[in-house]
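Here is the promised in-class demo. Please do not try to memorize the tokens; focus on the logic of going from shape to residues.
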């Protein structure tokens, strides 16, 4: 899939992912892979992200998110194809939901 026709994933990560720098880890990884979107904490203790870009870049992001930063402990990750319009340029941390 080309960047002219980006893919979008909605990602939910569970485990020890809050208070360990996980959102910043996601933001940096997404930017490194040339993706756009956002990441936020959820009130249930999970982290949620929506990322758009090339399929191979999204695959690489998901693999990094399964590991997380050194102080995180990921116990579950769900990545769902999202058919809504792709995210605009940039990758940001947004307020908790």
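The designed amino acids, position by position:
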């Amino acid at each position: 899939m080309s960047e002219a026709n980006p893919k979008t994933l909605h990602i939910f990560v569970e485990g020890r992912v809050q208070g360990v720098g996980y959102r910043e880890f996601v933001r940096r990884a997404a930017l490194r892979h040339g993706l756009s979107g956002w990441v936020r904490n959820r009130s249930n203790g999970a982290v949620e992200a929506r990322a758009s870009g090339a399929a191979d870049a999204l695959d690489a992001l998901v693999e990094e998110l399964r590991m997380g930063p050194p102080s995180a402990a990921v116990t579950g990750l769900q990545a769902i194809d999202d058919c809504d319009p792709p995210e605009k340029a940039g990758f940001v941390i947004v307020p908790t939901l």
